[in-house]
Structure formats: structure tokens, C-alpha cells
Amino acid sequence: MAVMQEQARDNTKTRIMNTAEELFAVHGFQRTTIKHLADEANVNLAAVNYHFGSKMGLIKALLESRLGPTIARQVQQLSEVQKQAQSEGRPPEIREAVEAFIEPVFEKSRSLPDRNRFMALEGRAMWEANAKIRNIFTGLFVQSFTIFYNTMSLALPEMPKEDLLWRLHYGVGALSHCMRMCSIRLSAQGSPTYKAEITQVVDSLVDFIATGVAGDNLRKKDLEKTMTS
Description:
The chain has helices at residues 2-27, 34-41, 45-52, 55-87, 94-107, 115-127, 131-140, 142-155, 161-184, 198-214, 216-228. The chain is mainly α. The protein folds into 2 domains: 1-53, Arc Repressor Mutant, subunit A (Orthogonal Bundle); 68-216, Tetracycline Repressor, domain 2 (Orthogonal Bundle), CATH 1.10.357. Helix 3 packs parallel to helix 4, helix 4 (55-87) runs antiparallel to helix 5 and helix 6 packs across helix 9 (161-184). The chain is elongated, with a radius of gyration of 20 Å. The termini are far apart.
């Protein structure tokens, strides 16, 4: 009996989170009310409060659940880039570092039946006007962004630290915009529609950010690599 009750609680919690993900992705965090969410999940308001304490508690739990694997993957890949470079006695490759940070953000969406919903949730969290929600989101990425910054510092030791930090923030801005556009597939009137696969999007975005962050430094490194090969 106790096992069945625990399973029922877990099922209710999962249903609430899945419904919240869908509603937040479509309507946003502010426009989605707890009552609407409870109705859509077919649970009572008390169940939401029981499992999450509040709407903000639900948002925090949802973002941690959905983004946790992405952040862990970023940390793992960036650490591997640093270790590989160190073992070979060279600075980390710029494109490898950028890809290690960018690719995991899109990786999970490839295996999901509704990847647009997941990407829309990430995009909304990045663009969120509510400071509390935005702080939850940015707080989750502090560890991976710090490792990203440190890796890029090793790759670009001659670049002033403040300049590098700003350029990385510009890159994150491009990432968030790309995720939002991929999720809603917007197209300006008269322009081509977006037909690229996720792999193509990632490759293009990595090149864009790597070039934007490194600038002439990347071209110099590519030239040096060509001359020594």
C-alpha cells in the first residue's frame, strides 16, 4: 500500500511538471496561473503546493530537472577540452571550447518528441523579465559558464579579461536568440523559412560565436595551424 501511494505521488508530481513545461513554453511563466496548470494537469491546487510549495518552487524544480543534465554535460565536455589541451602542452582550441559549451544545450532536444517545447522553455527562461526566475536560470549555469570563461581565457591569454567576458555574454545572447527562433520557427515576410537540422544550427552557431569572440585571434591561430601542418 505504501509503495502504491508513493508511486501515485510520483506520478502526480511528474504530471504537474510535464504540464508546467508545456504551459510555460507556450504561454510564458507570468501568464500561466497555478489554477490553469492544476486544471490542465487534472490535479487540485493543494497537490501543486504539496509537491512544490509555490509557483516559484515549481519553476525552480522544473528548470533544475530539465537543465541539470545539460549543465553537467557542459562541465564534462569543457573539462575534457582543458585536459586534452594540457596533456598536449597547448592552449585549448577556441572552436572546441565554444562547441563544448553550446552543443549540450541542443543535445537533449534531439531525442525529444517535442524538441520545440523544450527549447522554447530554455529560451523563455533566458529572456525572462522576472528577476527571480531569471536568477534561478542564470544561477544554474554559473558553474558551466565559469569553466567556459576559464577555458576561453586559456585559449585567448592575450585578450583583456573584461573584453573576453563581454564577448562571451554576446555569445550567450546569440545562443538564447537562436534557441528562441528554433523553437517558434519565425520567418520574416519574404525571407526563406528555417529548414536546417539541429546539427547544422549548432555548427553555424559555434562558428559565429567562436569568430565573434576571438576575432583576429582565431584567424591568426588558423593561419599558424595551416603553416605548421
